[in-house]
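INFO  loader      accepted 1 record
INFO  loader      residues=422
INFO  predictor   begin
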Amino acid sequence: MTRFSAWNVFRNGLTGQKGWSRQWRDPEPKKHYDVVVIGAGLHGLATAYYLAKNHSVRNVAVVEKGWLGGGNAGRNTTIVRSNYMMPGNREFYEHSLKLWENLSHELNYNVMFSQRAHVSLLHSPAAVDDAARRYNTMRLTDSDGELWDLEKLKHTIPYLNYGPNSRFPIIGAAVQRRAGTARHDAVAWGYARGADQHGVDILQNCEVTGVTRDNDKVVAIETTRGTISAGKVGFAVAGNTSRLWSMAGLGNLPIESHKLQAFVSEPLKPLLDHVVVFGVGGAHFYISQSDKGGMVFGGDIDWYKSYAQRGNLPIVQDVAEAAMSILPCLGRVKLLRHWSGVMDMSMDGSHFICKTPLNNLYLNAGWNYGGFKASPASGWYFADLIANDRPHPVVENHDLQRFERGINIDERGAGPDPKLHG
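INFO  predictor   done
INFO  writer      dumping tokens
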């Protein structure tokens, strides 16, 4: 595989771009792998990469029913941040952000990570107090965070709706400067390239149709490209986890699958050099501007369970109203397209990286709104779990039994809400 460098870019520019090799192989499946990771999204590819790089586990396959990065990996708003407070989440997302900061260099692939700051708008004194508590916790645990008053916010982002009669009056913001955005497909390609370079087989168009068990152990997976036996199996398939869980004969999971829509407008001249979010009065909204100029934004999930990857008009209206309430200058901008990803919503809003009732089956699921930003750390900790057959202390409470122990890793502070969504 050709390594990217300034010299190689220059040399290939003089030779008709003929010196580049394929970025990853398209191999035939082997009969057996030491580890099979199901799902070639960002989490599955990152897991395979870190299994090979950190733990020298090279006989690994990543199995994907479609094409690489064709699921939720390409259906999000690409926001990266670590402004979490709860124990477990705090350390996890900060580790992920630190991995993001060096990811392009590590993978020798430009993932287009732009640390443009994450700006959470505040609308009441109570919101300021709550943000101060959260961001002080972040600063005390090796992260960054600051509060901006209204004067500084107006100077930095002048286009917001600061009017006295605005629907959601703004009084300040909580800011994480190291946060930002990345290019989702570039992250998928970078991890695929890195994993392949370490000998991992990436098997596209290889849908899992069954899971073969021998008592409390998985012995093989049935796929559209044949039977593959495995020493260990990891599930990393986001909203479709329940389907695979059922194939393994394991009953129900404490997750629900919902659609989350995202939107992009026609390209505009540079307008917003930050990620701006707010949540108040039932509204939930986040927006940034892509390198191509499109305004990329989203809001709430569709409040019914679904595996569809299609949008729904009530959410289009809700998100458009939220956009207008905070950025009225977008009123005549045309919507270019919108899409949906399938979210696996856990009962407390936090993820699972854990062992399962089967001895050699491991679970990566329940990412709610946080899947993209978690990708590097998710792969790092999931690979650590699979390789060592025990959870790292950072994720030891992110298991399926935490609800039985009375542990809710609940960032919203609203408590668990089973069956609330639909």
